[in-house]
Amino acid sequence: MVEGPGNKLKGEKMKGKIIGQTVKSISGNAIDNRPKRDLDKPTPYHNMIENKITDVKTLGKELFMFLSSGECLRVHFLMAGFVRYNGASEDPDESAKKKLPENPRLQLNLTKDVVSLYQCSVEMRDGTETLVRWEKNIDLDICWKHFNHERATKEIMDPRNSERLICDVILDQEILPGVGNIIKNEALFDAGINPLTKVKDLTQSHVTKLVKMNRDFSMIFYDCRKTGKPLYKYYKIYRFSKCKQCEGRVTKCKPGEYERGTYFCEKCQDNSLKTGPCKNSLIGWATGVASSTWKCEACTFENKPGSVSCFACGSSKAKRKSTESPGTSQAKVAKLGSNVALSAKKTASENVLSERKNDNVAVKKGQEEMCKGHKKACVIKTVSKA
After folding, report:
1. Does residue 238 sit in helix, strand or coil?
2. Active-site annotation, residues
3. Rounded distance between C-alpha atoms, residue 283 and residue 294, angstroms
4. Nearest residue to 290 via CA among 275, 278, 272
């Protein structure tokens, strides 16, 4: 499944490439694979022709193309969908496919570019209604820059979810848009929560920690997709038969409403809030193991103490606001001023000594020349003592 981070990258690239272009013609399986009696009739997608693409937005696993006509094309990339521009293979999700489909699901021939959408579902929707829904839920998007941690926690703990398994709730795209099966498994392991636990049996501390772990692993996921790093190197539980933390047996099952592959370690995920990753983990130091981590202002990811830039988004550590008290800052300024004064004093002393040394050398050189004129060793001996 193309999860939130992968979909976000598709949207970012598409937004920078096709906004402002006009749809000249369309083709693809969505047009051709119809009953013969309907082939001469226009499809809802034909309404896109001669309309300009005004915006591209993403919400979780959904991508929306807004048109000047007021309509919107909704795209869902399903398990392994991808995009091609002008026939070029650039999408990271395409590299996993051994055999490409012959035709795209929908192809848009624009003013300058050709956009081909493969192995996805497409649907025309009302643009205004879609925008209202986007504005209502975007702060729950696990990859959104202004992700609302508190609201996500409240949504999970809502009474309507009390009897649901936590592994189902965090996959619900109306609660945490963008969370997929990989993120679900890794976040539950990082939080030390058993996926078969019902929401009513979890405290707010459990859910708060779980939301944080979903967000953090999503940022790692996003970084890997953006930079080409192998994501599997950051797996600690997904598709493993042995726990990387305690080396115990990993349980695999397909529980709940969605019946998605679920992996967990009963020993490390005991809901105690004390368990979770600490060995060979990027998340261990973000859960309280290390006390001097710093939070990125741009994406809220908690970074290692020694890192100079955010692991997830690359923002500089220097840009974050200082958390020091005024007294501490004044003390540092005073100490810095003292160090500058001492340095200046030391430099002045070194200059005086250097001048004296130069004078002595000059005097000694002149006296030595005088002594050579006398041709008397005693005079040279006296000068050397002086």
Report:
1. coil
2. 2
3. 13
4. 278
